[in-house]
Amino acid sequence: MSPRDKTQRLHDVVERIGRISFSESMLVKAEEVEDWDVAKTAFDSILYDLVVIGEAVKTFRDDFMERHPEIP
Questions:
Q1: Which residue, among 63, 47, 55, 70, has the nearest Cα to 8 in the 3D structure?
Q2: Can you give the residue ranges of every domain in the chain?
Q3: How far is CA 6 from CA 3, 9, 46, 53, in A?
Q4: Is the pTM above the cut of 0.90?
């Protein structure tokens, strides 16, 4: 398998942000009905997506980040 380029990694980040949004809505609904198993699963999903985002962004070179200061 070939390494993923920056564009693919940025796509991964955007996709994971969408998944986090969905999981957050699941978490809120589960908490409202006190379904703690679903709430824990949704929370774990959010954590996993944050790890994936972290792994993707840490591969960007400093020069990329310097060219895009608008990205925190």
A1: 55
A2: 6-67
A3: 10, 5, 23, 13
A4: no
